[in-house]
Specification:
This protein has one domain: 3-Layer(aba) Sandwich (NADH Oxidase). It is built from seven helices and four strands.
């Protein structure tokens, strides 16, 4: 429960840190073992740890965004002290890809469950995460082509890494509500 409650979006990662492969494999195995609609297991993962390729992949979508959006994101360079304003210098991006077993009504649900599993398991290992839905904006087809993903099949991406000491983290205001019916 504490890992779920304490998880926050991190936008400042240690540039020289590489996630040990055994930790990354554990995170991936947790994600792959998540429950799925009708047990279709319709989401495959692409785990990108090559920093040059991360920069190239994020540039594909970033360059296609409207100038106003790009300028807003470029503020992250000063605000967070990062080189890559999309990945925030995370050493790993895990891409979720819809596979041939996909049933459309479950894709978003399954990717949400898998996203949370990645984020919580990373947190348990002392790592931090950031959802990268922004990679679905703009030239998504170009990104899919670059990564060898069939067109229209990229569902979500999660950045994973070790946060810099004392990262800037926004306060989390809970706006959603719960209604109990007895």
């Amino acid at each position: 429960m504490e890992y779920i409650k304490s998880r926050r979006t991190i936008r400042q990662y240690e540039k020289d840190y590489s996630i040990p492969s055994e930790r990354l494999n554990e995170i991936v195995q947790v994600a792959l073992s998540c429950p799925t609609g009708r047990n279709c297991q319709a989401i495959d993962l692409i785990v990108l740890t090559n920093r040059t390729k991360i920069d190239e992949a994020t540039k594909i979508t970033f360059d296609s965004w409207p100038e106003e959006k790009r300028n807003n994101w470029l503020k992250r360079k000063d605000q967070y002290g990062v080189s890559n304003v999309v990945s925030c210098d995370a050493p790993c991006i895990i891409f979720m890809v819809e596979n041939e077993r996909s049933e459309k009504q479950f894709t978003q649900i399954d990717s949400g469950i898998m996203s949370m599993a990645i984020m919580v398991s990373a947190k348990e290992m002392g790592l931090d995460t950031m959802c990268l839905g922004a990679l679905l904006w703009g030239n998504k087809v170009g990104l899919e082509t670059y990564l060898g993903i069939p067109e229209g099949k990229l569902v979500m991406a999660i950045a994973v890494g070790k946060a810099k000491p004392n990262p800037i983290v926004a306060d989390k205001e809970i706006k959603a509500k719960a209604t109990f019916i007895e």
